[in-house]
Design brief:
Length: 774
């Protein structure tokens, strides 16, 4: 799987990292990525075009750009994402002729993708156990026939990963809906679904309410459960500015993350030459994994107490009473819940002391305008929705939503995951979406709710779904429970992958399997009407154009919109949609998006302005699209999802290394955490390690439990113990290696998000033999 190929010298592979984030280490890493992946000229051309007005949108993350007009903003992991896509390496029909799928299965995830870009449409041949070349037309004809042959359209699943453009995603959902189903498992179901469910209930929109400019006005910023040094590196530039203004940045994260501690900006020649760095966090608290509800309740408890004391002393109080009265409901129930929660239980569940929580709350209360940023450390829990809603509660108490310099800022993952949702990738279509489709296309879209990612994999496993189409991604590896997911995929009648590179999901063939290679963001997309741009929406609802400039990796590649249109035509001979016309001219797709979603008024015109345009966000304007028209304080019962039932249980989170993009493993280093050349590690607090009689470098077994402490039958064995400054009671290992610890039904009850960051585990000396040197 994705562990490094051979056993390594411990001392060389585990060494604390003393430097700042960014700096020369980042430049060296980019030089290495270029050297390994591509000709220098091609890479210079590619990197010069990233996030420019006439360039392409960086596939690295969804952090916005200062108006998309600045000169090249250096970002190590963005550069890695670009070179990985624009690589000179190719995965050709000759490659597939040489390797059976069973053989490729033994390769690492890194090695599979490192073969380079897919060049030809391929179809699986079960007799030879190989992918063989197929023409586009034949592939489409066979796929269309297989889809039409299903007894019910609801037996097909339409997966999407968040890199697809608005145009591709819109056509994809249109295809699925005209075909007759709402089964849209997508990567957000494993990512920010807790935000998509939790935020609308509280504030009426499922997105963040801040824009980049708000960071210039905020007077406190909280970074909760996200690691920008690795996952949103351009955000460090913003946080650096905030820090230089003397504004407090409070971090709540069980792990020390270097990017949140200090940063040397590669954009700043003086810092680069002198080696100076800018401190990021003014205060860094390390709650336990899963301790966020308790931390938020503790901060609210202090706030209510300090508010009462201030009122008693003749002050105006610390709550924003005018805002609360005019805009919210539910305050009394929240206050009762928080007051009924003891400090002792808050300390136990959060892993923080009362004094620490009071410091955090004091900084919060002293600031007029506060932004809360958060990531997977909040959402990927069994109580992800409640986590998100407690953050909102705390913000609402001081009117920190819908005013300049304040708000909630979920850090989205894939570069267009938010846009895909906006244009209709959802298993629960609302009336407006269905009306829009009816009005514009004249067919009756299905209204029954479809499957999210967990439900889709379950349906596949139980034989209720028989076809799976994947617009990008690596569903089988990204999903929890490979023991259940991998065999399920092999039972399908049809699987279709639209992809840029080979990954493990492609090696789980169904009765019929197709691998369809597509253009990437960096490449010229030529259609009937000429070269096309696509559009994407970033984490802050800015929509802008992206146009590739590189020669495509192969002449056989097609664009995602063109592939979706081809499959739709082959599947729906009576279609009411002019697929060919739409795919030939993306302006027409945008006209249709605008017709279905009025929020995109004047889409083509507005997206041609440099920097694009902002999609209106009602909550940011203090218009609350909730049933009672108010922002709502919402309760979370209890304090954390899984106070481990027995003392020997620890809580494990799976996290990303610095050298990966989700299931794409660029390499085996995790520079800021001091790991070189390996991924088979588990980060443990030194006291927790010693308490089990274990030491640095020991091989240990990680056995997973259900929340009640009974084993769930899943384990990862033989990991190397790394003593680390992580909160007590908490351990971390890498994703996807840790996915085997989590059963499919261990997810947030409300949003279906797998509990990737709340896995109760026991650690013990390993019984597994150490893998021999390769
Ligand atoms: N280079 C690179 N960029 C990426 C990605 C990538 O893989 N590589 N992935 C993209 C995607 S799809 C996404 S969703 C984002 C992910 O970006 P992040 O949200 O930063 O993702 P993670 O690495 O999963 O780490 C989350 C952080 O949560 C902390 N954490 C774990 N458990 C808890 C907890 O219980 N409470 C709190 N407060 N913190 C906790 C961890 O210590 C870690 O620092 O990044 C996007 N950008
Ligand atoms: N244990 C654990 N599991 C997790 C997570 C975690 O933190 N812990 N995080 C979850 C999260 S936040 C997410 S978002 C999911 C990610 O799940 P996915 O989005 O399904 O996975 P990726 O690894 O991003 O997909 C990588 C593949 O996308 C394809 N690809 C790349 N670029 C393009 C393109 O432009 N077009 C097309 N068609 N294909 C392309 C390539 O073939 C590549 O192999 O994983 C989730 N799984
Ligand atoms: Mo994500």
């Amino acid at each position: 799987m994705s562990s490094q190929p051979k056993d390594l010298d411990l001392e060389k592979s585990i060494q604390p990292y003393d430097g700042p984030a960014g700096g020369w280490g980042a430049l060296r890493a980019v030089a290495k990525a270029i050297r390994e992946q591509m000709a220098v000229a091609r890479s210079v051309e590619a990197l010069q075009r990233v996030n420019k007005p006439l360039g392409f949108d960086c596939p690295g993350c969804a952090w916005p750009d200062p108006r998309h007009t600045s000169s090249f903003e250096f970002c190590e992991n963005g550069a890695k994402a670009v070179t990985w896509e624009a690589t000179s390496k190719r995965t050709t029909p000759e490659f597939f002729a040489q390797h059976t799928l069973s053989e490729l299965w033994e390769w690492t995830d890194h090695a599979l993708e490192d073969q380079g870009r897919l060049t030809h449409p391929m179809a699986y041949d079960a007799v030879q156990d190989k992918y063989l070349p197929v023409s586009w037309d034949e592939a489409a004809t066979r796929i269309g026939a297989a889809l039409r042959a299903l007894p019910e359209p609801t037996m097909a699943e339409f997966y999407a990963s968040g890199r697809a453009s608005n145009e591709a995603a819109f056509l994809y959902q249109l295809f699925a809906r005209e075909y007759g189903c709402n089964n849209f498992p997508d990567c957000s179901n494993m990512c920010h679904e807790a935000s998509s469910v939790g935020l609308p209930e509280a504030i009426g929109v499922g997105k963040g309410t801040v824009q980049l400019e708000d960071f210039e006005q905020a007077d406190a910023v909280f970074c909760i459960g996200h690691n920008p040094g690795t996952n949103h590196p351009r955000m460090l530039g913003t946080l650096r500015e905030v820090s230089l203004r003397g504004v407090p940045i409070v971090v709540l994260n069980p792990m020390p993350e270097r990017g949140l501690e200090r940063f040397t900006s590669p954009q700043d020649p003086a810092e680069m030459l002198t080696g100076r760095s800018v401190p990021i966090a003014t205060t860094y608290f390390k709650p336990k994994i899963g301790g966020d509800i308790a931390t938020m309740k503790g901060m609210m408890k202090w706030l209510f107490e300090a508010d009462a004391a201030d009122l008693a002393g003749g002050g105006a109080g610390l709550l924003d009473r005018a805002f609360i009265a005019e805009h919210t409901t539910g305050l009394e129930a929240l206050r009762d819940d928080v007051q009924a929660t003891s400090w002792e239980s808050i300390e136990r569940a959060s892993g923080l002391t009362r004094a620490e929580i009071e410091v955090a709350a004091g900084i919060y209360a002293a600031a007029e305008k506060v932004i809360f940023c958060y990531g997977m450390g909040i959402t990927q829990h069994r109580h992800g929705v409640e986590n998100v809603q407690q953050l909102v509660n705390l913000l609402l108490l001081r009117g920190n939503i819908g005013k300049p310099g304040a708000g909630i800022c979920p850090l989205r993952g894939h570069s267009n995951v938010q846009g895909d949702r906006t244009v209709g990738i959802t298993e629960k279509p609302n009336a407006a979406l269905l009306d829009g489709i009816r009005r514009v296309y004249g067919f009756e879209p299905p209204s029954a709710h479809g499957h999210d990612a967990v439900a889709a994999v379950k349906a596949i496993g139980e034989g209720r779904s028989k076809a799976l189409l994947c617009l990008g991604g690596n569903l089988a590896v990204a999903m929890s429970d490979p023991q259940a997911t991998f065999p399920a995929m092999r039972q399908l009648d049809l699987v279709v992958h639209v992809a840029t590179k080979l990954n493990r999901s492609h090696l789980l063939p169904a009765r019929a399997a197709f691998l369809l290679p597509c253009l990437g963001r960096t490449e010229i997309d030529l259609q009937a009407a000429g070269p096309q741009s696509v559009t994407v929406e970033d984490s802050m609802s800015m929509v802008h154009a992206s146009q590739g400039r590189l020669r495509p990796a192969s002449e056989h590649l097609r664009s995602e919109p063109a592939i979706v249109a081809l499959l739709a035509r082959a599947t729906l001979p009576q279609s009411k949609v002019d697929w060919e016309g739409l795919a030939g001219d993306y302006d027409r797709i945008r006209d249709d998006i605008e017709a279905v979603f009025p929020i995109f008024a004047n889409y083509n015109e507005r997206v041609r302005q440099p920097g694009g345009f902002h999609l209106e966000n009602a909550a940011a304007l203090r218009r609350w699209n909730t049933p009672d028209g108010k922002a709502r304080f919402l309760l979370a019962r209890g304090l954390d999802e899984a106070t481990p039932a027995t003392a020997d249980l620890l809580m494990l989170a799976t996290v990303r290394s610095h050298d990966q993009y989700n299931t794409t493993i660029y390499g085996y280093n995790d520079r800021y955490r001091g790991i070189t050349g390996r991924r088979d590690v588990v980060f443990v607090n030194p006291d927790d390690l010693a308490g089990r009689g274990l030491r640095e470098g020991d091989r240990i077994d990680v056995e997973a439990s259900r929340v009640d402490g009974t084993p769930n039958g899943r384990a990862v064995r033989g990991l190397v113990a790394v003593p680390y400054g992580i909160a007590r009671g908490s351990v971390a290992m890498y994703f996807p290696e840790g996915n085997g610890l989590l059963a499919l039904d261990e997810h947030d009850a409300r949003s279906g998000t797998p509990g990737y960051k709340s896995i109760p585990v026991r650690l013990s000396a390993s019984s597994a033999p150490v893998a021999p040197e390769a």
